[in-house]
């Protein structure tokens, strides 16, 4: 059995991984925006498991990657969709991940938010009382870890709720008992089809009204909302209707530069899966907003971040829920882990042409600390699938 996080030594990097920066080498936190990168997990490639079995993680490599994100001044959003929550990472694994990341965040002084959901329940048949109890169990663990809770959308609640009132009552009960303001997470069905009709209606306008009613009824209990609907216009309209103290954290992996840059009426903060592979570029872009006010800072920010959108749109193309495969591929190519194996065998969820194109786009952005290592690893992956590329034209286009 693994030792508790507080009792084990600080993790070192996995073979081939980039070691975490020391505190003296870490960049200071970002100032103009609060930015979380939703972090992936690193599977244990030697675990004797199967897609339906419990998740087996390489803890050292997984936690080293969190230090990589903190070293750039980003916050870490833990045990979220990007960590394959509900797609390979079970609640037992997620709970241990939250405990360990909480200990590492305290040691590093890193910003940490963690997902609290209901995935310890069976997919069907849960009552509203069961769902509330499951949320309460996970909220307690997140708060004990010292992290800001993210109230994740619940598949079980989507199945059990009969209308908006069930959402308002259940979430209201949770908000009344939290010890710190939470982030409410609205994850659209493009990320998880089981969440269709969340907030009690398939009409997004009606769902938005219920969402806002919940926030208005519990002042001081909501730090912010994470909106993952891939609809920039809807996010802007929602953002403008939020109470002044409530942040909007964009979860839009298609339109994040314009949403973070904002307009004359405000801007979005960020909690994004695409900032897992884009961490150095994302942090650099936001620092340009930190360093220059007004149009000059916005132009510098957009110049740095706009070129990354093509890669993001590629990674998150439909079926969007499989974007994690490209994220883990890029972590392997960048040297943050020694293998391309995923929890639940999800490395097979994207086609070889899709993965090859992800490498090309990331390479063009200069994302890889060692481009030759990335090219060699991509060439090896192609070879395993019977594609020979001895001259390198496929993986290193001109």
Provide the fold topology:
Elements: E1 35-38, H1 59-71, E2 75-78, H2 91-108, E3 112-116, H3 128-144, E4 148-151, H4 155-160, H5 164-177, E5 182-187, H6 204-216, E6 222-228, H7 232-241, E7 247-250, H8 256-261, E8 269-272, H9 279-291, H10 294-305, H11 309-315, H12 323-333, H13 352-364, H14 371-384
Parallel strand pairs: 1-2, 1-8, 2-3, 3-4, 4-5, 5-6, 6-7, 7-8
Helix pairs in contact: 1-2, 2-3, 3-5, 5-6, 9-10, 11-13, 12-13, 13-14
Compact overview of the structure:
With 398 residues, the chain is of the alpha/beta class.
Give keywords.
14 helices; 42% helix; alpha/beta; disordered N terminus; 398 residues; eight-stranded parallel barrel
Could you characterize what this model shows?
With 398 residues, the protein is an alpha/beta fold. The protein has 14 helices and eight strands. It has helices at 59-71, 91-108, 128-144, 155-160, 164-177, 204-216, 232-241, 256-261, 279-291, 294-305, 309-315, 323-333, 352-364, 371-384, and strands spanning 35-38, 75-78, 112-116, 148-151, 182-187, 222-228, 247-250, 269-272. An eight-stranded parallel beta barrel has the order 1-2-3-4-5-6-7-8, surrounded by four helices. Helix 1 crosses helix 2 (91-108), helix 5 runs parallel beside helix 6 (204-216) and helix 9 packs antiparallel against helix 10.
